[in-house]
Amino acid sequence: MTTEWRDTKAAHVIAVLAALVLFAAGCGDDDDSSPPPTATRTAAATATESVEPTASASDTPTVAVDTPTSIPTETDTPEPPATPTPTVTEEPTATPTSTNSPTATATAEPPMFGDLGDPLPDASAEQLETFLRGQAVAAKVFTAEEGLGPDFNVSITCGGCHEKPVLAGAAARYRDFLLVQSKLPDGSSIPVGINGVQPQYTLGPGGRRPTDPETNLEATRNPIPFFGVGLLAELDDLVILANEDVDDLDGDGISGRANYDRGFVGRFGRKAQTVSIEGFIRGPLFNHLGVTTVPLSDELKALLPVPSAPIEEGGLAAAIFELFVQKALAQVAAPEEPNFDDDGVPDPEMTEQELFDLVSFAMLLAAPRPDPPTPTTEAGAARFEELGCAACHVPTLEGPRGPVPAYSDLLLHDMGEELADDIVMGLATGSEFRTQPLWGIGVFAPYLHDGRADTLDEAIRWHGGEGAAARDAYEALDSDAQGEVIAFLRSLGGSSQFSPGLLPPDAPIPPVGELAGPVRELDPAERALFERGRAVFDTDMGFGQGTGPLFNGDSCRACHFQPVIGGSGFPDVDVIRHGELVDGEFIAPQGGTIAPRHSSAGVRPPIDPNANVFETRQTPPLFGLGFLESIPEAAILANQDCDNPDPQAVSGCAHRLPSGALGRLGWKANVPSLAEFARDAMSAELGITLPAVEGMEFGKLEDDDLIPDPEIDVDDLDALTFFMEQLAPPARRSTDPDAEQAGAAIFETIGCADCHLTEFVTPNGLIPYTDLLLHQIAPDGSPGVPEGQATALEIRTPPLWGLALTGPYMHDGRSFTIADAIDRHEAEAEASRVAYEALSEAERAQLLAFLESI
Amino acid sequence: MVLSVAVLASSPALAQFCVGDCNGDRRVTANELIQVLRSQCGSLPPQEPADVATELELAVGNVFGDCGALPSQWEVALDASQLGYMMSGWGTGDGAVWVVGGRLFEGVILRFAEGQFEQVDLDFPVPLLNWVHGTSETDVFVAANDGAVLHYDGASWTVQDTPVSDPVWGIWAQAADDVWAVGGEPVFGTTPFVMRYDGQTWTQVELPPIVRPGVAAFFKVWGSGPDDIYAVGQNGIILHWDGASFTEMGAGISQDLIGIWGNAADDITVVGGRGTAEFAHFDGTGWTRAPTSAFGGLNGVWTRRPDVAHTVGVRGTILRIDPSTLEVIGQDPAPTDLELHGVFGDATGQILAFGANFTFPEAGIVLIRGLVDDD
User: Fold this and answer.
1) Does B297 contact A190 at a Cβ distance shorter than 8 Å?
2) From residue A128, how far is each of A119, A122, A133, A169, A362 by CA, in Å?
3) What ipTM goes with this model?
4) What is the pTM (predicted TM-score) of this model?
5) What is the pLDDT of residue A263?
6) Domain A737-853 carries which CATH code?
7) Considering only CB atoms, which chain B residues are within 8 Å of A274?
8) Are B251 and A46 within 8 A, CB to CB?
């Protein structure tokens, strides 16, 4: 009955829309003349106490979960291809980019396309300014002082999860996140975690946000790209509803029904659960970053690139708006509630202007420009129709700028048990998903809502339910024909920007001595090896390449990216160590002290149920490690004073490993060499099994996933090691030589250099400022996880070169400024900290200037 | 002017009515009433009524529909932007309605009578006032933030001591010595509360261990009698009091339930949802959840007959629902896109909706229309 009523109303609206065209056009003129947004608007006054929540952001972008989905690997796809590996090539073909294409430039295309990350081509100058401001907000890194947390999954506004191949895109599996719910006997599924999202981290003790005990349903989500979302926001509800066939009256096996959000047709999210871009941004900001916002005022909404505000109340205009036009302005339906947290940072933690810029940025993102057709892609397009793919992935929806080729009807379809996750969102059942837009799809791997598919071919084979017939038809094609379909899909935009990781295609090797560049000139063979190693470092390894079954990242770059590849990592990629402390004795979990964030089973990996000690480990930068590896052992040992009985005296212990080698890498100096470091990281962080190599002890040689071991070969490992060995140490960054010189003297005077030694110097005169020894600088009683001979609280003196570029600081990554890191020096470093505190303000500034310059 | 018409006897043919102030000074018979209405409403038929009841219906309908006393479509009765949020209203049925709301630190009480809103001059500070209910004109309770409850005894308002400090969201006066209130801190809190007033003291009622996760607040309470009280709140929780203890129930709804109203123990409607409307009906034996609809979240509900529940919600959403079938009868055009939080009607044939913009800029609104037969 409800549907009938809605349909009746919809029909009525259609009937009168024609009569309103002139009126609506008049309104459009008014909109165009609206003054541009200004940056002068500051954060709105917001409630600081409770107001009974009304419909809000809390259910918008997040929600529930269902039984764990078994994530397939290449060998357990639902209908395995005749050969273990799909015969379809999925490397992008060298299609000409549209920007260079005579066809593209000669044809008047609707003002909606661009390279990935470009603004809409018809954006006004003022909108472009807003776009750039919003782009900066999207890339902003939040610190605890700026509002990150208290619980979080990412620390970058948008760029953490929407980075591939450029800002606003998709992400590899290391950015997968979990929806968590508690399913109750009455059939309800209650979001737990943070509005149904499971944060991995907390700024609280231990750093690991526990799973709520009521959680009995988890499901994985892989981030989706934002390109072209403004064009989808512009679509009239009726355009989407026109493709509904709820009861499959045409008998084609494809139904399709809309989801709704706040009374409007939903269009964003894996279940089309959200209608407004503002809502689709504010929700994740809170749920994944802990960043609070207030809703945009109607005044600012009116200035957004996509009409998003109601007409002023009163009179004929309002009446007509309410009755007939409102559906075309669904962006008004953003959640109305401010959100709050208790992290001590005043709410809102993002200003209304920043939010406005961010929403505008998203709305102005151009749609991926499709490649000019080739015979192969045209054949693929024809097969796409013939197979029935286009029944859901409808090629275009009619928007105000013309046909919008998103290849989606934005409707819900039952995808069967093959894809069901039991997540209910609005009208969407556990097996219903929004038809994923396909524009740009070739560069957004992995695929499907939970990122289970490495390739497009695999994604197609996972289709079930309403997609089963098309899937079967695809599987019945020969490999050449399947390849045409894949080629067509890859032609739908972005192919020139494809990257197996995050490095842009053909990224040059930075000059010698620069960050991410080599430490010395390389001969051609070495350059090739460096590039190969960099590619191994950067490439997102699929499940089919061995990632998992448990993992933190799916590439080395996933964690080492700040400020460039090979660098440090933000708190959202910290490694979490854990274990059980019983009567002062630490008991390591059977599977090791790492508590992985991800599993190929799509659920949060279990931890030791008895664990009572957790500790985050910040991702340290890799620059200059080759030099550290080259420091003679005797020179390191010469500085140790391990038996000093005074706990507040600077002692320093070398970490002698069971093999007899001297540990020098890692927060616990528990790794002797870069080759072992590569093996350790590949194995422990990615779940990649290793080939046995004589003399090498780190890493697992086998695991229980279905990929044959070893999952990486020796040559790739060697290239990876070479790449890391050759990464240049950070050069000095002098901005105030006098202050820095004075600061260097203070550094020595107050005892910093007792551990952060100045005696090791590279041939280029750079100093790592480390003794590579273990020290205790945390007070007794602090939580810590021991490793080998390194006690719970012993930490290797970290190198300081590049300090200003590689925060956050300390082994737990919980110091977001250098000054805070100094403040946290205790125990052996207490005397230095006290001396620092006794410095004048000017002297402290000099010290900080020095530290920022090294 | 709002013409208040109250039926003072059960049978229309024998009824007496009052017009305007219903304190007894202008009591009239049905025929007299019709004449009064006719004198004010030119559209009434000139002939004498053959059937008093039919004529009366027509007269009242015309008054509401044609004479401007009560509009047939929702209209703005009060733009309360200067006062803050308008949260709820309640009256005894004689046409006068207490309206409460305000700002976070400055609660406001309005008295709506004969088309006029008059602000009550409280001589003490009160926080935001969330809900109002009472047993008579001289026994009115208001639930407020910061654990506050206000009481009106017919002469003055006072703040009552309560054992809680979190917001009190809902209140239901079963009798002067049996009043229930619920609340909790939904964002930062962990423990919801139910408290009961015995005419002297507010006391927290012991709750069973709550199975449903994430319930830190109850939002409304309603009852059909002293042994039949319901509290609804976060994440779809429903608690039922049988006279001795509470039992946790569920209607299969996962989102917050924000409103509850009923006509009898076997005719209770709950509404809620955040992004999407949720409502369910209790028929005396079990809860039936409506199919998830296309409408935005609902906050308030009021019923006067078994087959119609008036509900309000996000962005001016006003729905009429048939609780017995869980079908949406229709959506009323609303002259606002503010959040509507409460709805209340009375026997005089008026229905009011109360709403706000809970963010910047603060705004409040009261809507009104006349009830018609099928309302």
Assistant:
1) no
2) 7, 10, 9, 19, 12
3) 0.80
4) 0.85
5) 85
6) 1.10.760.10
7) 275
8) no
